[in-house]
Each structure stands twice: as C-alpha cells, then as structure tokens.
C-alpha cells in the first residue's frame, strides 16, 4: 500500500503545514508595520532598555527583515527548516527581551506588531504578551520536530522513499 499514506503521516504533515503557515502569517503581520514605521520601531527597541544606541539600531534594522523573510519562506515552503529555525530564534529573542523588561518593572508597549500607542491598543508588556512569545517559540520547536518526523513534508524525501526511487530507476 505504497500509494496510501498512513493516518500518522497525514497528521504529521498537516500539523507541520498548519504550524508553518500560522507562523509565516504571524511573522508577516508583525514585520510589515515595523518596516513601514522603522523609526518608531527603533523607539520601541530603546524602551526595552536592553540594547545600547548602536546595537538597538541594528536590532531595529534587522529583526523586521528577518521576520519578513522567515514569514515568506514559511508561507511559500522555501527552505522550511531554516525558516523554522529563524522562527525559533526570533521567538527566543522576543521571550528573553520581554522577560528582562518585565523583571525590570517596565510598563512599555510590547512592539510585537509594530510601533503603536500602548494606551490605545492595550498591548503593554504583560504576562499575556510573554505567553504569546512563549507560544511562538513553542510552535517553532514543535514545527521543527514535525518537519523531521516526516521530512518529505518540506525537506526532501525520507530515506525509505529515496531507496524506493533508486530501485525503480535501476
């Protein structure tokens, strides 16, 4: 029954695709306002009081583009393993930055989905924004595991399928 996929294979492939698309659209949604209002986003970066002037500038320039490229790659299934690893790294960065800011007692806008007025959006750093960052990190980790449970879902073919292809060609 080579032509029929097992239920487990379909579930893994479907779960991997769902996580990949959800993270991809989330990163695009997050990146576009930061790219449109980069100077305001720089202000958000400085409000965290973690980075100095030069490193803050680099963070504000690089992070939105990383989010954008990772989002496009995740949605289009281009280099999915690298895109998922980028999502994991970004999720870890966001989680760490928010954790540090909350530990310092800062009451600042999250800046998660671009520079906004915290008073009007209610997106001030809190346990809920920390949870959201943790969910991004966790989704990336689960997506990475699922990607390698069934590699043909985005990383080429698995060894059994490759061997079957070789035997047919012989």
Salient structural properties:
elongated; 170 residues; mainly alpha; 7 helices
Instruction: Report the span from N to C terminus.
Output: 21 Å
How many DSSP H or I helices?
A: 7
Detail the poorly predicted runs: 153-170
Q: Choose one word for the global shape.
A: elongated
Q: Estimate percent helicity.
A: over 70%
Instruction: Quickly give the structural class.
Output: mainly alpha
Mean pLDDT: 84
Rg over CA atoms, rounded to whole Å, is 19 Å
The total count of strands amounts to 0
The biggest sheet, with number of strands, parallel, antiparallel or mixed sense and barrel status, is:
none
Order of helices and strands: HHHHHHH
Beta-strand residue fraction:
under 5%
Classify the oligomer. single chain
Number of domains: 1
What does this structure look like?
This protein has 170 residues and is mostly helical. The chain has one domain. It contains seven helices and no strands. Helix 2 packs across helix 3, helix 3 (53-76) packs antiparallel against helix 4 and helix 4 (80-103) runs antiparallel to helix 6 (127-149).
